């Protein structure tokens, strides 16, 4: 671990800052003195240092059984980060962006003609966080959209493109608010598993409703064209959504 850190020209303090732990914890890890480290710390260390978590675990004195169970937790955490936190956060962000820049969307939502739930569903049609899923293999020969696909072919699932298909895309806002036949949650065996879509919807709806309720005068603090998208082939989300609003005063009890 020390040589990986040194090859990146990081001091213990710099590494600690990036991982979100204390410098003393880095020193303890490097000395192999930590016996029960948290899985999340290893996941972040592994990402910053660019070395597989299993090697880190072995190097820091965690026994094989401990390493196996930590590695298991870690991969679960990674699934939650990639498959749950990112799409849900970006679903909320993309909805708020549309609310701040698209007058029709905002009027319908803030004027109460559409519920937050319908607005969120519309975003899954026209600005879904889940754009492409890369790396799926056909299990048998088949034909799709007039194209021959052979068993073992590598496929890229264009979920956003499928949503834009004029044959399935709902014509009007009213329809896109209630029609849930989009592909944003994937489909079939590897689609977003029940009850995750419902859970994500509760989280996203609560975020939008509470925001509209608490800070109704929220405005974009930069020009819409200055908003920056994260460079990603698979996920659509902003780096940041700077806004301006009037702070509410806390009610005294
Ligand atoms: C609480 C929030 C969420 C949780 C816990 C969650 C969980 C998961 C899990 C565990 C999988 C992997 C299923 C498998 O490989 O068998 C998955 C897949 C997927 N999720 Fe979610 N998810 C959440 C939110 C979302 C949101 C908001 C979207 C999109 C708007 C989304 C879209 C997808 C898609 C498209 C897949 C399929 C990926 C593939 O084909 O491998 N998920 N989700």
Describe the structure.
The model has no long low-confidence stretch (mean pLDDT 84). This protein folds into two domains: 61 residues, lambda repressor-like DNA-binding domains (434 Repressor (Amino-terminal Domain)), CATH 1.10.260.40; 172 residues, Orthogonal Bundle (Cytochrome p450). Helix content is 50%, strand content 8%. The strands form three sheets. A two-stranded antiparallel ribbon has the order 1-4. The longest helix is centred in the N-terminal third of the chain and has 38 residues. With 253 residues, the protein is mainly alpha-helical.
Features:
single chain, 253 residues, mainly alpha, 434 Repressor (Amino-terminal Domain), Cytochrome p450, 2 domains, two-stranded antiparallel sheet, 6 strands, 50% helix, 8% strand, flat, binds protoporphyrin IX containing FE
Topology:
Blueprint (H helix, E strand, L loop, with lengths): L1 H6 L4 H8 L3 H8 L8 H11 L3 H7 L4 H38 L1 H8 L5 H11 L5 E6 L4 E3 L2 E3 L4 E5 H5 L9 H6 L17 H19 L4 E2 L22 E2 L9
Helix pairs in contact: 2-3, 4-6, 5-6, 6-7, 6-8, 6-11
The site of protoporphyrin IX containing FE has 21 residues, from helix 6 and helix 11.
Counted beta strands: 6
Count of domains:
2
Tally of DSSP helical segments: 11
Shape: flat
Q: Compute the CA-based radius of gyration.
A: 23 Å
The CATH architecture of the largest domain is Orthogonal Bundle
Order of strands in the sheet with the most strands?
1-4
CATH homologous superfamily annotation of the largest domain: Cytochrome P450
Which residues form runs of ≥5 with pLDDT under 50? none
Q: What percent of the residues sit in helical stretches (DSSP H or I)? A: 40-55%
Hetero groups in this structure are: protoporphyrin IX containing FE
CATH fold-type name of the largest domain:
Cytochrome p450
Q: The biggest beta sheet, please?
A: 2 strands, antiparallel
Q: Could you tell me how far the N terminus lies from the C terminus, measured between alpha carbons in angstroms?
A: 52 Å
| Content of β-strand | 5-15%
